């Protein structure tokens, strides 16, 4: 690699011409490719039905687990909301079968999906804001745009790959337990979240700690999945988790979206790397 001291005027002229071509042609080619990929990702989140425009079709997913058959059921997803849930729970102690389903007038918004979709929309907006006729004048301008797009894509991906950590009182207060008919027993808590390409349902069975209990009461902190033995205080009661049942189902279009995010982030990084390579040819930064 020639340094600025050794480079001839002709060599520098060639490099500068290649850099101008990168700014004027290749950058826009990459932006078009990114927009195409992210529009496909955006379509996965909207899932339009074949009927009225704007209608989002319902998808039914069967819950399953390789470790237990204590919980079985079907979740119905409509865009970013659970529109129906039909769950059977076999109580471990007496094998009593409980059935609970969403009330017909209720839906449960999945904030992770909504947030991921919003970040994708923001990334598309940033890319579309640079029309084909726009002339990038410096590499720094391209790097700034790529950083902004990558930030949105990283946030979108993280919302799906990193579920929120919640305390047990936060789960109890979330309102999800009040979505069901008949009403859930007071010794049950439920939580729903996205983890990667999976929709997960967790059922916590609780038992009250007696006031004279000799157990050392230590309230559990935040977690994605609490373990048996976790304790918390709710109202005037101290409670402990006795059993935990987790079931899940794969959402194929979430997997598609995660692939699109990965490919888009790689394209952004590759363009950034090309811009940075040119800077190494000069001791000063021509961008």
TrEMBL record:
It comes from Tursiops truncatus. The gene is ROGDI. Pfam families: Rogdi_lz. Belongs to the rogdi family. GO terms for cellular component: nuclear envelope; RAVE complex; synaptic vesicle. It is found in: Cytoplasmic vesicle, Secretory vesicle, Synaptic vesicle. Its main location: cytoplasm. One of its GO terms (biological process) is neurogenesis. This is Protein rogdi homolog. It comes from the Eukaryota.
